[in-house]
Write a structure and sequence with these properties.
single chain, 405 residues, alpha+beta, Nucleotidyltransferase, domain 5, 3 domains, four-stranded antiparallel beta sheet, 16 strands, elongated
Length: 405
């Protein structure tokens, strides 16, 4: 198994010729050919008969396959209920022999992917402040999605890291990438996971529903397992050192536009030695293997409800948005998108505003402001008795019914 892992590492990752691999490892060219042709590592061969570990070899191998770094004391605890009565020393000696193969196999399996097999997703704390109005700024976050086969990536920028932001950000990334990989790998982040960790994680219902609509499988990593998403970690590091320096951003839209232009003009044209070509070339080979986006694209807007105040404003996500004065005091439904807030009453749209991220901001439609001012002036005149009623021509009713004709 050790030879298989090293041969595959040198052949696939280092792009070394088979003859050179044979010379480096001191084996025949036929052996190298045979190992390269094996798509899975050779089955573990048990130690010599008579070892106390013989009955537990497969069980140990299964635990190492799940976590090659698991401690000997943990393995011994798991084996006790199965009848293992040996000591820790013999177990450690056994692990010293077999563990390196599982570590090497894991490295190979985590860095070599088929086109369209997976996408790795992670939040990027950019540290960049973007203006949000009234002289205030907020840090921008990027939801990064990387395809490890080609190193193609997309980023959707937002000003918070909620589940709603993840949903809209993920759809934005996949639209930019032109399709959906078979599986999406996530950190154990609170915007993704409602409870549990790793394989036992339970996704937020909204996230699970979105992935179901995309026909993509979710893989949630155990905490402190960065090796499992090396592709997206490299993308974030590359963006931090190659995209951000010497740039300023006037708004979140400006940040998004500058990044998308840089990705198309620079990032996709870089040559990556371990991939044997440019990102654009590898992406061209990978894109046909991505599943198409659903048509229509899943709706990721956040739904909220609130009551409009007497001043004809509705508070949504900490910001007050205006509605026509006629809807003051009414129950209002809000659809919150990444850039827009739509307000509805009994299913009918009554207002639409650009979303504000400035804390405690007030967003006023000029038409609502004029109507509100006129309504206040009318109320003031009524309170002060300053009102005039036109004279009513009662004769029009006679004429209507031809009375006295």
């Amino acid at each position: 198994m050790e030879d298989w892992a090293e041969v595959h590492r040198l052949f696939h990752r280092e792009r070394m010729a088979k003859a050179a691999i044979a010379r480096r490892l001191g084996m025949s060219r036929n052996t190298v050919d045979r190992l390269v042709a094996l798509h899975k590592p050779p089955r573990y061969v048990r130690t010599a008969a008579g070892s106390q570990l013989d009955p537990f070899a497969d069980r140990i191998a299964a635990m190492l396959a799940e976590d090659p770094t698991v401690r000997a004391t943990v393995i011994r605890e798991r084996l006790r209920p199965d009848g293992y009565g040996g000591g820790i020393t013999i177990l450690k000696e056994h692990l010293a022999k077999v563990r390196p193969a599982f570590l090497a196999a894991r490295t190979y399996q985590r860095t070599t992917y088929a086109p369209g097999e997976i996408g790795q997703v992670d939040w990027w704390h950019t540290g960049v402040g973007v203006p949000v109005g009234h002289g205030r700024t907020r840090e921008a976050f990027g939801l990064v999605t990387t395809l490890p086969f080609s190193a193609a990536h997309a980023i959707t920028f937002t000003l918070s890291r909620t589940t709603a932001d993840l949903r809209s950000g993920l759809v934005g990334c996949l639209v930019r990438l032109g399709g959906v990989p078979g599986a999406l790998v996530f950190d154990n982040d609170t915007s993704v996971v409602a409870s549990g960790t790793g394989s036992r994680a339970r996704l937020h219902d909204d996230v699970a529903g979105l992935l179901g609509a995309l026909h993509a499988r979710a893989v949630v990593l155990r905490p402190a397992d960065p090796e499992a998403k090396g592709g997206v970690e490299r993308t974030i590091g590359y963006a931090e050192t190659s995209f951000l320096p010497l740039r300023t951003f006037a708004s979140l839209d400006d940040l998004q536009g500058q990044h998308d232009a840089w990705a198309a003009d620079v990032a996709y044209h870089r040559h990556i030695r371990r991939l044997g070509g440019t990102v654009a070339d590898r992406y061209a080979a990978e894109r046909p293997h991505l599943a198409p986006m659903p048509d229509p694209v899943p709706d990721t807007d956040l739904r909220l409800e609130a009551r409009a105040g007497r001043d004809a404003f509705v508070r949504v996500a900490g910001v007050d948005y205006s509605v026509p004065p006629a809807f003051a005091g009414r129950r209002i439904a809000a659809r919150v998108g990444s850039h827009q807030v739509t307000l509805l009453c009994e299913g009918t749209e009554i207002a639409r505003h650009r979303r504000s991220f400035a804390p405690a901001d007030v967003v006023l439609d000029p038409a609502h402001g004029r109507a509100l001012r006129l309504a206040r002036e009318a109320r003031d005149r009524l309170r002060g008795g300053d009102h005039e009623l036109p004279a009513v021509d009662l004769g029009r009713y006679d004429r209507l019914w031809d009375v006295g004709a």
